[in-house]
């Protein structure tokens, strides 16, 4: 059956790529109905994405839910993230949170950290600092090469806005230590600004120096900020 499922899935993707939404939806539905354990869940997620793009939110939710209920190790968590993003766009914060938690709980090495980061953004925007901090910590603890440093940087920004200088500094340092080409430099710059405002010129210079040495696009501004400390 996997051969038929694979063929049907490729047909559906081809139709979607050519802009034949109705045909693609029908093709994806046939793959789902086939009961193929591999391509059925994949088709359900892709169908959900396609329906969401065309503002068919109810049908998209149903497709994502079907993929989640399949128990597929890859497509279930992937569907949960897409469902959470859809619910978030619709203003259903509680539903989005539940879906993100579902993805995090799966332990998937890619979708779990992504969901933790997105949940942190959602809760931070809602003013739930404790919840955002916990979500970002889960992303950071995953050691994911992209989402962990991004979470550390975002957590630093969140805590800095709250006036928690030690907490923000620790988060920025976590992002810097990752060596990420973008997030480390942005965290270094933000740390320099934070320490400058907090009356620690020596620490600010050291932070700006790291940004300058990185060659990041913020290097020129870091250099100007550093010069203002002399």
Automatic annotation (TrEMBL):
GO terms, biological process: protein O-linked glycosylation via mannose
SUPFAM superfamilies per record: HCP-like
Highest taxon in the source lineage: Bacteria
InterPro entries: TMTC_O-mannosyltransferase, TPR-4, TPR-like_helical_dom_sf, TPR_rpt
Pfam family of the protein (one): TPR_16
GO molecular function: identical protein binding; mannosyltransferase activity
Protein name (database record): Tetratricopeptide repeat protein
């Amino acid at each position: 059956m996997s051969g038929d499922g694979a063929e049907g899935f490729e047909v559906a993707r081809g139709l979607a790529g050519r802009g034949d939404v109705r045909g693609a939806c029908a093709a994806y539905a046939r793959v789902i109905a086939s009961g193929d354990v591999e391509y059925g869940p994949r088709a359900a997620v892709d169908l959900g994405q396609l329906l969401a793009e065309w503002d068919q939110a109810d049908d998209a939710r149903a497709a994502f839910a079907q993929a989640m209920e399949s128990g597929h190790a890859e497509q279930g968590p992937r569907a949960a993230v897409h469902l959470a993003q859809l619910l978030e766009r619709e203003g259903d914060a509680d539903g989005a949170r539940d879906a993100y938690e579902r993805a995090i709980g799966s332990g998937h090495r890619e979708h779990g950290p992504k969901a933790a980061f997105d949940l942190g953004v959602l809760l931070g925007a809602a003013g739930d600092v404790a919840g955002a901090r916990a979500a970002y910590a889960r992303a950071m603890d995953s050691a994911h090469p992209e989402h962990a440093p991004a979470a550390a940087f975002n957590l630093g920004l969140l805590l800095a806005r709250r006036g928690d200088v030690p907490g923000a500094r620790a988060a920025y340092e976590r992002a810097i230590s990752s060596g990420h080409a973008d997030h480390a430099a942005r965290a270094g710059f933000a740390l320099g600004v934070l320490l400058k405002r907090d009356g620690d010129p020596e620490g600010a210079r050291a932070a700006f120096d790291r940004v300058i040495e990185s060659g990041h696009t913020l290097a020129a501004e870091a250099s100007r900020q550093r010069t203002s400390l002399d």
